[in-house]
Structure formats: structure tokens, C-alpha cells
Amino acid sequence: MNQEVKLSQYTAILLENARRSGLTNEEIVEAVQAENTELLKAAERPHYTYESFFSYAKEHGEDIEKAIKEGYRITFNTNNGLKNWIVATFQLDPDKDFTLGEGRIEGLVLSEPQVEKLEHTLAFNWEIKEIRQTADGRKQLTLGIRGQ
Hints:
6 strands
């Protein structure tokens, strides 16, 4: 039985930030295998540094290499953390591309593959509350904390 890979929000955001910076999955896997943060320097920017990336993942039993190859689910999303993950993953602007409220994200427009990634990655404490078709064939989503 294939077990779903779980990553902390912290690790997931750093992983997606590395991808956003232009590093390929192969380059990130190489850095993970060598535990070499120098290979991730190109991805560093304010609030996104990698000096504890590998030690944190090890300490929390996170298999980054498997997450890169097979996908992952975030263990728990906070409001701001989910916003940061969306920005890093889909290269969106939180001031223009969606609205962040307390326990809610509205007006998030994604393609079908992006919606699928979100569905498979979103922590169980959040859910997609509403999906509307847009005129250009994309989906407009409302996300919220599960049970609210």
C-alpha cells in the first residue's frame, strides 16, 4: 500500500519556493540527497532560507525526495501559511489574485491541473467550499476552514 507523503506547511512552502525560483525537481532532489543547502541558494529570498530545511524535515520524519516525486499533503494549514503556499506554488499575487479573510480565501482562480494539485495538497483542516466555472474555462474557488 502506498502511503501518502505528509509535509509540514514550512517544508511545503520552501519546496514550492525552490520550484518557483526555477530549480528543477531533479536539482532539488540532488540537493536533498546531498543535504547541500548551497544547491538551493538560488531559491533564497527574504523569509525563504534553507539552512534548516534538511534538519527540520529529518526531525519531523518528512521524506522530501518522495514528496517531490509523488506529491504530498500538508499536515496543517494556517491562514497566512496557506496564502504563502498558494503564492509560491501558483505564482499569484495575494493583493490582486485572491482575497484573504479570517479562515477563508475567496476569488482564487486556477486551471484544472492547479485545482487538482490544491485538492491533493491542502491540509485536512481546510476545504474547497465552492467552485465556479469562469468564462475562460478556469475555476474560481472559495476555500475555508473545515467545519466553519
